[in-house]
Automatic annotation (TrEMBL):
<feature type="transmembrane region" description="Helical">
    <location>
        <begin position="93"/>
        <end position="113"/>
    </location>
</feature>
<keyword id="KW-1133">Transmembrane helix</keyword>
<feature type="transmembrane region" description="Helical">
    <location>
        <begin position="219"/>
        <end position="239"/>
    </location>
</feature>
<protein>
    <submittedName>
        <fullName>Uncharacterized protein</fullName>
    </submittedName>
</protein>
<keyword id="KW-0472">Membrane</keyword>
<keyword id="KW-0175">Coiled coil</keyword>
<feature type="transmembrane region" description="Helical">
    <location>
        <begin position="186"/>
        <end position="207"/>
    </location>
</feature>
<keyword id="KW-0812">Transmembrane</keyword>
<feature type="coiled-coil region">
    <location>
        <begin position="1"/>
        <end position="28"/>
    </location>
</feature>
<feature type="transmembrane region" description="Helical">
    <location>
        <begin position="251"/>
        <end position="274"/>
    </location>
</feature>
<feature type="transmembrane region" description="Helical">
    <location>
        <begin position="159"/>
        <end position="180"/>
    </location>
</feature>
<feature type="transmembrane region" description="Helical">
    <location>
        <begin position="125"/>
        <end position="152"/>
    </location>
</feature>
Amino acid sequence: MKQRKQETKRLIDENNQLRKQLNAENRHYYEDLLVYMRAHTLLRDDFIVEQDLLAILQDLIDAQQSGMNAQTYFGKDPERTGSEMLKAIPRNIADFAWFNLKLILMMFMIFWLPQLTRPVTKFDVGNLLIVAIISIVAVWGVEWIIGSYAFIHPTRMQTVAFYAGGGLLFVVIIGLLAFFKSSWEITLSSSTVLVITSLGLLVGIVLPFFHRLTGQDRILYFWSMFILLLGFLSRLPFLQRFMHAKIDLGAWQWLLYVGMVVVPVLFVLTVWWIRRRKK
């Protein structure tokens, strides 16, 4: 699986370089097709999709050198071309399951891991599952919307509705995390948290020697290591009182709550920006 993932990344990198050879008209045509196909690959084999996209690109470059444009060579309906190609690509349930598992792990790192720094660490399994399911469905929805509008320029109202819906979904997730409590709650003792954070830090120290961290991986890695370190220090007897001291900003206490919302938003935007730069 790792070798196939590396090959897929190589195909994407090669695609990014070769696209620079297209003129503006052909590049617009091809990139719309690229967005459409990549947005519809949740249940498809990414490697085969990237192989097909690269083959199309190479054919288009040859056609361009012969004086033909993309519409003449591939037709005026790129959506139909992409749809027919996707139908020929086999489904890959294993990659789909792994994709969703990674989303759940990411949710765990971002939202549950900070619980290890609290004086009393409670792990609400039901809360995490509901938030994870909503987040996974939301990602599917975003992928579907991106694919649906690959060849259509959305109106201003549709764009506003999309961002408003995303903002509302974010508020719902934060609300569930803050206020929803299920009966599937596990309370961890200080000694258990100390063991978990110690093992987590040990794995984190060794990990870079066995796995090359990319841009997004680095953000999650340093975020997790920072939280694990705080959790570890907060369980040391001589630091417990200091680490668990209540922050009282008086009239400016509201800034603390604003920061608790703004920081995760900035984190998500940073991950999105890094992914966009890579593409």
